[in-house]
Amino acid sequence: MAEPNRHMADEQRLATACRDGGRQAQRELYEHYVEYMMLVCLRYIPNHEDAKETLLDGFVNVYKNIGRFEYRGEGCLKAWIKKIMVNQCLMFLRRKTLHIVPDEDYYDTGPSADTDALARLGMRELMQMIHSLPDGYRTVFNLYVLEGMTHKEIAQLLGISENTSKSQLHKAKTLLQKTILQTTKMS
Amino acid sequence: MAKDFEKLVNEKIEGASLKDVMPDFDKEAMWNELDNRLPVPAGRKVLPLWWTHTATVAAGILLGVVLIRSLYGGGIDDNAATTAVKQDAAPVVVVKRDTVFVPVEPSGPTKGPIVENKQPGPHQQVPVQQQIAVETLQEPTRQPVAEKTMEQQPIAQSKPKKIKAVHLLDIDNENRQAALYHNDANAHHRTGFALQISTQRLPVNNPQQRQETLIKELLK
Predict the structure, then answer these.
(1) pLDDT digit string, tens, across residues A75-117
(2) Is B4–A113 a contact, with Cβ atoms under 8 angstroms apart?
(3) Touching check for A30 and chain B: CB below 8 Å?
(4) CA-CA distances (angstroms) from residue B6 to A135, A142, A172, B40?
(5) Nearest beta carbon to residue A34 from set B2, B30, B35
(6) Complex ipTM, two decimals?
């Protein structure tokens, strides 16, 4: 229990120090979360340079709005920063004219997921497979599977209907499973 | 099954390391880029380098000017011919010094400071700086000028010269008379000399006789 308490104290201390505008505290917060947040940006934006630019904009917003952060428990600072990064990625995709075709037709059919194949898959290959998905599929897949949002929340966020969100997710998973099967068969 | 697939993807990605996906990620370079974008903290004022350099150079120049002025300007020179000592609310005392040649006694020390380094010989004069005069300069008291009335103010006037008009026929006679008076043979050559007409000089009182006399004189 000592470890979570220490972690909680660190998060509170970091947030307070950054609120005061100390450059050293800002550097410490950056060192803590930069690698995780870079991975978050890479899930949504395949291009590495675009992902770096989005990451920088995200951290600027973090320091700018740190005064609004309220500590509510362990890990809340990480979750708060992650939310800012996801919003920044979505803003980038909207500027890139992210267009999700309304498609409310989906059926729960297709190849079954091979979890063993997925478990054997390397991280780089998995990320490459996610990057190969169309922007709309990838965005909904990330928001639902990795961010844990509901279809209602995704629909409100992206300005689409819930059924379109469900359809986009189904198609993303289908395509991903096909690619995993093809990769494992080839290997 | 689908839920297992989603859960497995989530666990795989959440536990991933950035080095697996982007091995060339430079954390330091990214921080430098971020530092440039962040605003300067309120407590820290960054002065441009050129500003500090300019201020240093200006301070050095000012100090040099002050030092030079104190060393070479406004000091008291003992070898000056005159030294003015000014006192507040007091007359200015001017002490005049000059080089005075003092005769040197053959067997006695010289009086006063010796200006030259040469050893004086017997019966020679040595230049010495001595106080030769002390003058007290007083500001001339300004007396109010008494206003004189028109009657009191004298106006210098010269007697108007009486211009003597001489008749042309009398010019020679006048010249001869002047020569007789001053015993000057060349008196008749003087020109521009206005004489007062004097009837007493002519020997004849009668105008007709006077005219005849003048004609005779002319015919001579």
Answers:
(1) 899 999 999 999 999 999 988 766 665 555 554 545 555 677 7
(2) yes
(3) yes
(4) 19, 10, 11, 44
(5) B30
(6) 0.83
